Amino acid sequence: MFNIRRFDLEAETTQESTTTPTITSTNDRLAKLNARLNKNKPPTPTTTTTTTDTNTSQDSIPKDTTKPHQYKKDRDSKGTNEISWEKRAKELKDSDLVPNDVRLAMKAEAEAKAKAEKEAKKIPFAAAVAAAAAAAQKKEDRDEDMKDIEEEEDEDKKDQDGKDDQDKDQKEEEDRPALHLEGVDRFESEAAADAALAELAALVPLPTFETKEITALEKERAKSMGIPDWLAHPTLIEPDESNNRPITSKEFGFSERLIKQCRKAGIEECFAVQTAVIPVLMRARHLGDIRRAPGDLCVSAPTGSGKTLAYVLPIIEILSQRVVTRLRALVVLPTRDLCIQVKETFETFVKGTDLKIATSTGQNSFAHEQTILVGESHSNPNSPRVLGGHSRVDILITTPGRLIDHIKSTPNFTLQHLRFLVIDEADRLLNQSFQDWLFHILNAIHPSPERKLLGVDGSETIQVKRDYLGFPIHDAIAPGFLSSFFQLPESDVEDPKALSVQKLLFSATLTRNPAKIASLQLSDPQYVAVQEGGQDGDEKQKYTTPAGLTEHMIVCETSEKPLMVLHLLHHLQVRSALCFTKSVESAHRLYKLIQLYEKIRTTTPMEAPVVKEAGKDKKEVAKKAKKDSRNPDESGSEESSSDNDSDSDSEDESNSSSSSSSEDEEDEDEDDEETSDVEMEQAETSTPAAMDVDTTISPATDAIVVAEFSSDLPKSKRQSILRAFNNGEIHLLICSDLISRGMDLSPVSCVINYDSPVYMKKYIHRVGRTARAGKTGTAYSLVEMQEARHFKEMISKAGHWDKIGRINVKSQEVKDLVPGYTKALAGLKDVLVSSSRAGRKGSSRRSFK
Ligand SMILES: Nc1ncnc2c1ncn2[C@@H]1O[C@H](COP(=O)(O)OP(=O)(O)OP(=O)(O)O)[C@@H](O)[C@H]1O
């Protein structure tokens, strides 16, 4: 009964496992194959089983089941469930039918020994994978027929003797350090080994990248900071195009279906980070087995370098083999908008598979999300909990808070079948201690009775799911406690297994904080960093900006900052820009101000002369403005304001620019005087009602279309704003840091740091919204006088100062903007009051920072 059950459950894992290997060869030949694959390791003792089986792993089940009682665990003298392996091994040493439990114990011993050897040699996972692929490639070059094995061994021998130095590849392989090829040397049937080899042979060797050489000093420093060796010793990849590879390249091993979807999405090549990461993930599938974790991966690569696809593509490709829907990939992201974006990316490439994707972000009701995740069963208190849980989705993209809610409160929701745990924007998420989220996820991945599920305060914060007898429901695939109770025949499904989950961390600014990294409980991790070479020092290595990014700073007074934004918009023709402020409130104020300015500008043809003509009769001024607008060449420096001259709506910009070009140069004191004049003018003429306009201004004018984006807006509004921005309908999107990370808004050609960031990480993420995917972009940081020193220090420390150009904006350069600006400033208060009364009714205004 258990064999059948196990077969079914394992068949659920992948289609590969349902194929029927035919064992045709002798153990000697198998041993030779294993020995060839792993020359430095003696052949693993194998059983004399020659039965044709339906499942590779069933080879490990004893075939003689006539005496099931013989295969039960012995109790030791204390009556515990310990197994006297040694005794059993001695008894059955010479027996042909070595029972499963003994064989597994022997195997475990051999594995422990191999592991110790491996530890001593410290071969990085990537090297092992590369060597495995190289071995497979070599096999493809030769004859795959087993008859050739002996010839190959002869060749190997010749090479070892130094007699055949023409076979360079062969020699290179021999020169490589001794490797313990996990998974490969465990094949217990020739067919299984051949199948895996054939798959590996289809892949070309992993691309080789430079491994960072660390100096003794750096090593010492890393050690003193508690930074583990693997983190201080990344595999480095230059972020240049020479590391791109065509998607059809064999090193990725993509299926035709996926290649087709990539092409449809306009992806012909994989970027550097993808070239480095995807082959490693794809190969983990072949090398992994149930007793070995696939090896975790931390990836640091610049903004816009393509980290999302580096995990989306392999996850889809690997999971597309699954038969039964289980929750196998969990992607954790810091914001809802990012979850939606990543879901859309998955949906683009998942076409042609039946993988199901869902998000859980709290945007929908909890009950609704529960139904999506586990079906209707959650709503019925009498519906039984299914051992091992239940899932209607394969891939879940979620924010940490909502995920914890489901772990705690959704019956049958389980993370026990996870194959991938992706933590994107990892450093940001690791900074969030919200609900102890990481602790709960790690526990939910691998709950066990021994594990203490205690929160920081020592209380049991989350219950392991238990059955009615109080036994922990730890996994439907391995219901070990049942057999120990009822003395049922055992199978190897009871044996301890390594986690099959692979943790993947991604960020443009990955933390190297040892405590934070330790909290992830990474297993056999490796660190891949895409960064410019030739830099040294910790900080410098952490931050690489996109190659196409041009950076500027504008030092100015606090009060001049809005004017600088207008300068960028009107004089430098900045469009498709994101403007970051320090808070929601700040974003809202600036948004209203710019909007007001645009309204004034587009309804007041000649602004600059307003100052000089402020005292004149308005009608007369308006008339003159209109006349000049028809004859731009004649436009002079003497104009006045007209507040509501609708005819002039479409004429303003050429007029204002021509008037500004003819402005006399004036010093700042005079500008100040003008300001006060305009304020008076504004006080006389502006009415909030006239100025309160919609987020998107009438397209009938050439006004700069400005919008704000913040957490205060409802989801639908946020999505529609992002859509409009992506469609080029919004020229300036003023936002807080809600979208400073991860968001991929393709048209962004410029980033304005309205409030300059205090931390380098924030700077990197903000400016990284532009110059993505190999495009160019510009960033302007408005730095207040008193902040200039800190800003310079921050940028210099990151080795970045040389890249930032300084722009001095003289007062006369913005002179033409001053009248409208001061006018808008004067009207701002009223606008804010009226907008908070009208538009924000019912909205819980808060600062999210
Ligand atoms: N191989 C590729 N070919 C063409 N475009 C690509 C490729 N890979 C990614 N892109 C595009 O590059 C853009 C940036 O990718 P992505 O959002 O994954 O960057 P990222 O490294 O995650 O950036 P961030 O650190 O800001 O989150 C996206 O528009 C994506 O579609």
TrEMBL record:
Official protein name in the record: ATP-dependent RNA helicase
Biased composition (Acidic residues): 146-156, 635-654, 662-682
Keyword ATP-binding in annotation: yes
Enzyme class: hydrolase
Keyword annotations of the record: ATP-binding, Helicase, Hydrolase, Nucleotide-binding, RNA-binding
Gene Ontology molecular function terms on file: ATP binding; hydrolase activity; RNA binding; RNA helicase activity
Coiled coil spans: none
Disordered: annotated span: 1-100, 136-184, 608-694
Domain Helicase ATP-binding intervals: 288-528
Keyword Nucleus: no
Domain Helicase C-terminal: 670-815
Reported function: RNA helicase.
Free-text comment about domains: The Q motif is unique to and characteristic of the DEAD box family of RNA helicases and controls ATP binding and hydrolysis.
Organism: Linnemannia schmuckeri
Top-level division of the source organism's lineage: Eukaryota
EC numbers for this chain: 3.6.4.13
Family: Belongs to the DEAD box helicase family.
Pfam families found in the cross-reference section: DEAD (PF00270), Helicase_C (PF00271)
Reaction catalysis annotation: ATP + H2O = ADP + phosphate + H(+)
Biased amino acid composition, Basic and acidic residues: 61-96, 157-184, 613-633
CDD domains: DEADc_DDX51, SF2_C_DEAD
Compositional bias (Low complexity): 12-26, 46-56
